[in-house]
Amino acid sequence: MIWVIEVVVAVLAVDLVSGLVHWAEDTFGTVTTPVVGPWIVAPNVLHHDDASAFVARSWLASSWDLALAALAVVLLSIAGGWFGPGVAVFALLGANANQIHKWCHAPSRAPLLVRIAWGARLLQGPAHHARHHRGEKNTAYCVVTPFVNPALDRVGFWRVLERCCVPFTGAPRREDLRAIRLVRTAHRREVAVEQPPRWLARGRS
Ligand SMILES: [Zn+2]
Ligand SMILES: [Zn+2]
């Protein structure tokens, strides 16, 4: 029965890792940052602007980098002698995290098995992922299951992480995300300029 615990931990762990990667992608760098700008930031900005933009991409186009990372995990675990059901599930879900995300934006293209998993609330579905695309797009970063996001968002995990980054990276929110907040706040207060939060201003020194 130990393998059941291993698999459950692996599923939650891969969801957490998907959230951490997504958060980092949405938080650091700009479209002009070398390498990651055109490779990661630009598609993410486009995805926030037009959520259906990446739906047409093939599995290979949107998952090759995750598949390579998953393969590295499997090879390392075999070399280290700790390969097992947990690692297999972690690698399988991790390699397909973008595909799972993509199905949320194209539910009609999702295979029957995926829809059954949505119905059983085992896999993250369109309604859950829609939370990330609301407002400032700074919650519900995890894309694999419906279990991890509610806990992390409830305790303000991502905001704490951002505050921890300030001494090392300065204000971490990317300009396109920050722009959304500026526009919204300006609209709410009917003023053109918003004073950034104190912790954000401190980080910019
Ligand atoms: Zn995002
Ligand atoms: Zn999305």
- DSSP strand (E) fraction? under 5%
The number of distinct structural domains comes to 1
| Mean pLDDT score | 86
Low-confidence stretches: 190-197
Explain what the structure shows.
By secondary structure, the chain is mainly alpha-helical. The chain has one domain (2-203). It is 66% helix and 0% strand. The chain contains 11 helices and no strands. It has helices at residues 2-27, 36-49, 59-80, 85-95, 97-105, 112-119, 126-129, 148-154, 157-169, 175-189, 198-203. The longest helix has 26 residues, at 2-27. The chain starts with a helix and ends with a helix. Bound molecules: zinc ion (2 copies). One zinc ion binds at residues 47, 51, 101, 105, 129, 132-133.
Features:
binds zinc ion, 66% helix, 205 residues, mainly alpha
Question: Mind sketching the topology for me?
Answer:
Layout: H1 2-27, H2 36-49, H3 59-80, H4 85-95, H5 97-105, H6 112-119, H7 126-129, H8 148-154, H9 157-169, H10 175-189, H11 198-203
The structure holds zinc ion (ZN) (2 copies).
Residues 22, 26, 44, 48, 132, 137 line the site of one zinc ion (ZN).
Provide a short characterization of the protein structure:
The chain has 205 residues and is an all-alpha fold. It is built from 11 helices and no strands. It binds zinc ion (ZN) (2 copies).
